[in-house]
Design brief:
The chain has 113 residues and is mostly beta strands. It has strands spanning 13-16, 51-53, 58-66, 75-81, 89-99, 102-112. InterPro entries: BTB_POZ_domain_cont_9, Galactose-bd-like_sf.
């Protein structure tokens, strides 16, 4: 079923990133330069990022996320998944694209935590 399992009511938590509280609150309307979003610093070794840990192992095939769209900035990104936070598999790679606003990302079904 289509359900957002990256929600606090299902035990999901943000364990990496800055301003974590806004990421899983479900509010996609009320955000500005001071609140309502999550971010991460950009470093040379690409070790920092935003990390969400699901409440339980789940089969995923779709991620929907909102990138900042209140100005003309665009972003490049990739998404990796893991079961143990040690071995990571890249499921989305938009590192060579300029992206903004809503991202509807579909991929081969995969068990993730």
């Amino acid at each position: 079923p289509e359900e957002n399992i990256a929600a606090m009511k299902y035990g999901a938590q943000v364990i990496g990133g800055e301003l974590k509280a806004a990421l899983l609150d479900g509010d996609t309307q009320n955000y500005d330069l001071d609140h309502g979003f999550c971010r991460h610093p950009i470093d040379e070794d690409c070790r920092s990022g935003i990390e969400v840990k699901l409440g339980q192992a789940s089969i995923l095939n779709h991620i929907r996320m909102l990138l900042w769209d209140r100005d003309s900035r665009s972003y490049s990104y990739y998404i990796e998944v893991s079961m143990d936070e040690l071995d990571w598999i890249r499921i989305i790679d938009h590192s060579n694209y300029l992206c903004r606003s809503w991202q509807n990302l579909f991929f081969t079904p995969r068990v993730c935590r």
